[in-house]
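Q: What would this complex look like in 3D?
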Amino acid sequence: MPQRTVAVVGGGQLARMMQQAAVGLQVRLIALVESPESATAQVVPDSRVGRADDAEALAALAHEADVLTFEHEHVPNATLAALRAEGHPVEPGPEALVHAQDKVVMRERLAELGVPCPRWAVARSAEDVTRFGEAVGWPVVVKTPRGGYDGKGVAVVDRDETVPFPLDAEQPLLLEEHVPFTRELAVLVARRPGGELRTWPVVETIQRGGVCAEVVSPAPGLSPTTMRQAEGVGRLVAEGLGVTGVLAVEMFLVETPGGDRLLVNELAMRPHNSGHVTIDAHTTSQFEQHLRAVLDLPLGDTTQREPWAVMANLLGSELEEPSDAYPTLMTELPHAKVHLYGKEVRPGRKLGHVTIVGDDVDTLRVQAARAIEILSGRRRA
Amino acid sequence: MPQRTVAVVGGGQLARMMQQAAVGLQVRLIALVESPESATAQVVPDSRVGRADDAEALAALAHEADVLTFEHEHVPNATLAALRAEGHPVEPGPEALVHAQDKVVMRERLAELGVPCPRWAVARSAEDVTRFGEAVGWPVVVKTPRGGYDGKGVAVVDRDETVPFPLDAEQPLLLEEHVPFTRELAVLVARRPGGELRTWPVVETIQRGGVCAEVVSPAPGLSPTTMRQAEGVGRLVAEGLGVTGVLAVEMFLVETPGGDRLLVNELAMRPHNSGHVTIDAHTTSQFEQHLRAVLDLPLGDTTQREPWAVMANLLGSELEEPSDAYPTLMTELPHAKVHLYGKEVRPGRKLGHVTIVGDDVDTLRVQAARAIEILSGRRRA
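A: Here is my prediction, written as structure tokens for the whole assembly.
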């Protein structure tokens, strides 16, 4: 029985949740995982242990699959280009993926496309940082162009402070103005190779310590104009970069009496934490949609099924095993949808998430926070 | 990282769909499957090939798991009782499961509980059949007490017709009156060992050739009284038989000018085809609920999220591989939720199902039928 086969690079929670969608669609997943105990290997029978930068491992995967895709961006682009040249579909393609791998390349291209961004520059020396800070105002944001995630590789640097990353003429750092944003938004877009495109409702993301802690869908109190603009930015980026699959565009919203301003912060070309809410709240989840898009299948409806949905991340836990708190959680919140990733507890680690849907956003936020409190072992007396 | 482990006997679509729920709850599933290519083995890494009547295989499974459960009833009860006696949780327990294994035992017990059933008797000889037919009217329904499913082991026998099953004094057949039902209903109940119980909305099931073809949730046009009665029958059976896990109670509805009458037709003690609609239409699916119940975790909310939901089965296909029809299906019906089971196509075989939710039941029924038409390869010109 010939089935569609998707190879996914990465063994974390994203490939794990992709498997739930793959089972429904009868898509065979092959995963390249870091360890046989990884979140993905626990649930994907065809998991192979290997490094994402191992050209041979990637080639073996691509040979067996209809398409090669990713749950993270840390894959050598030259290897992907070589696979493509040999006729193996790689989606998103290396020429699109580079914008999620290198933040300087991303800024250059978004500027060309006319996508609103914070003011930015590259720094090869301490003098470059000072010059930029004096021009746009202190503090400034300094980012390593490659390899960062969840707040890693990002620093806020004030006048006379030292940049905590090596300054090097060969590998410049990215400098960005420190945007006085009032809120953060994210728009999730899915695009097929031929151009078919769907967006989900724009969400508000609440970060703590540089890590996504909570997502509210749709973003509360957004004007229809700003909602449309945010969606438009998502479409523009997806089309401009030629993305296939799911693209997450994270944005700063600056709300002033004179009006709203949107500035693109980060991109991810894969299912993204800001889209976990779609598993339980929307007709088609980001995981199903990513599979459909990279397989060049027609995209699914992205309607939100209830007026509001709130997703909260479980970041670390005082419990040795958060699922030990299921009896309390499930008794108190029988309508909460809990997702744990099979990961060992470590401080601040993304261990799972909870989504709650309903009619009253304030109630849902309280309930989602309570769910996380229970799974964290910080139970009320 | 200690996880809850559930062992499931059976390698079909039910254990396959149970895996999707297990992934979310971070429950490790171990499956005893018929073949390494089975619907379940494709998606459950811990699948072991073995027979459901192999006492050693069952014991090995039970030793490794927190609880042993089933996706079908064809398991030797004595083996289960022995495992229980050794302290291994088996849910539902053998004393409950026997009612889903042996239709005569089921009828006897339902009669004791006062559950409304068709008139019935046992037959050890052709004379017994004739006597019953003359008493309740011809034709009569003849069933083999054990081993039947999807219309197999069931025959409608008219006066002077021969019973197509061996008549044997040792292994009597079950005789039932041929109920002039107007519709068929099913109620799905989940129960924890301690007695906590939840029902889903009562559904209408439409059978073709003795096999479930379509489910409409909730059952259209049912009076509140009949809805309550059907739910009450479900509760009575679940409590009376001491079921743990999901129980499906299939009922005949006889609508007459004088009022409605409900009669229990069949029982299943596991997730059931009439409950597939819960995956996409209700807050908690039957698969998640079954895992929660057998693990003695608090049960989830069973609210239906949209006014109507229709599930249609794919029974055989003229296509070699039904998923080849995805481009057409997904273009025409971007909101349809398709589930294929990874099974080779055979005439009439349950290969998958489609669920569609929305506001207008007639539209949904047309759309679900169209989805099946496409997956069946019976495309309109």
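A: To summarize the key features: Chain B has three domains: 4-90, 119-177, 183-375. Chain B has eleven helices and 17 strands.
Q: Very helpful, thank you.
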